[in-house]
Amino acid sequence: MATGLAPRLTLRFIAIGYLVALVMVPLGMIFYRTFEDGFVAFWEQVTTPAGISALNLSLIIVAIVVPLNVVFGVVTALALARGNFRGKRVVETVVDLPFAVSPVVVGVSLILLWGIDGWFGGLADHGIRVIFSLPGMVIATIFVTLPFVVREVEPVLHEIGDEQEQAAATLGASWRQTFWRITLPAIRWGLLYGVVLTVARSLGEFGALIVVAGGVSGESQTLTLLVHARYIDDHNTFGAYAAATVLMGLALLTLFLMTLLNKKREPV
Amino acid sequence: MISVKGVTKRFGDYVALDDVSLEVPDGSLTALLGPSGSGKSTLLRIIGGLELPDEGSIEINGEDATAVPPQRRGIGFVFQHYAAFKHMTVNDNVAFGLSVRKKPKAEIEDRVGELLKIVGLAGYAGRYPSQLSGGQRQRMALARALAVEPRVLLLDEPFGALDAKVRAELREWLRKLHEDVHVTTLLVTHDQEEAMSIASRIVVMDNARIEQIGSPAELYDKPANPFVMGFLGEITKVGDDLVRPHDITIRHEPGERSHEGVVTRITLLGFEVRVELMLGGGNTISAQLTRAEADALELATGDVVWLTTEGEGVLPSQALPEERSSEAEEAPA
To answer: N or C: at which end does chain A have fewer Cβ atoms within 10 angstroms?
Structure first.
């Protein structure tokens, strides 16, 4: 270990310099550009119809994806942690797959499946549009965020073991009562942490959405797509900065919650 | 009364219980004693409904309970590592069984207060398990199990995770509690001293089978086989006999069926004296005498003496239990 003063200062300088150059400066620049002309100019860009619609859509996707991931994630984590079944290894791998697969690939595969020429393309004839509309965006977001709740809850379930659940059973609790009164309170911080990660990832998702979301302004444009559209298509760089700052604000909020939860999550 | 009839349990290829039958009388305090891997915990968990037997049946009070889920068996179960509900206060832990039965609040409050008094945790109702010592947590777990007025109390190595002093205190406390509450109690332990000091009946298990059932005195004085003899106390081999060190009589002159030996070492252990002797064939054994006996004999190292074995506990040693008894001593907590 570096014990002298000089090596310690050098290490610190390298670490901080790296973070500043790669993270702080770029993000700070956006922040600076956004508020360069004052808060009013920022507010005008954010509250355009397209801006409000994009924020709404991003939040709606989060609102749909989070409950689905919570239910699916807890059920899967319980099955993996408490059960011993054939193909458990395969399920473990499939759960991790979204970590490995690029979101663009996810978007393309969804078009193959749900697009007009895809397996479920016939649904469009019945007025159910998946691609280029909300369902497609939700499915894409679920795909990329699927592992978070499972991966946060499963280790907690392993750690607490099943003795408390067995004790509850011997005391007369049905499995429902055991779940709500014993299991869920025991995993609550891990679950919340998984939710926060899901929210952060959902808000930030871009690669899969740019393929499956039509990107129609005011309709199928999330905040990330709005930033992209304003910057690339509209050459409205200031508008892009403003929308990016909103995204950053939401991200900082989730980061703050994450830090709080991380403290709570530490075992007693 | 609990009746276990011909229960067999396998985990894959491993046989945990092999055709085990047992009756536990009402109101008794019975210990299931055996080394780790003997099947005693599995038997307890099957009686509690936490495991299903592959063959055989369980009856509780004359009713077949083999397929009855643990919720409806009328049992209280206490785990080695307490299984405390960590996010609940002591009060809520003890109240749990009553609260899932939707009992009136006032009734729950009274019963919990009463139980906390019995287990000596009256001032701790508002604490969380993490704020209690191990002994306190286990007393809380006992109160929680007793709250639902079980017909049978099942304890799985309840004191195994506690240090020696607390363990001895809780043992004594549990014995008294049983005298007051009188619920049929089945306790799993690998500690023969614990079983002897607490139980009125001991079931000795080894290798998925029951070796012997009896009172502590019966098992100690009349062990059915070398395993039981070795598990319940020290043994030593004199000639062809297995014998407890205190059942060896030492004399200065040969007698009928006596063995010649040389005193190699004398150790004073307070009230007792341990005499190590070398027998013919280089076999070293140790005998235990009272201080008075040893003084009367005026033994000294190098003395040539003659030993006889007397007492009810002498077993012919067809099968030498040395390996198995040393295995038993290694039984982990």
So the answer is: N
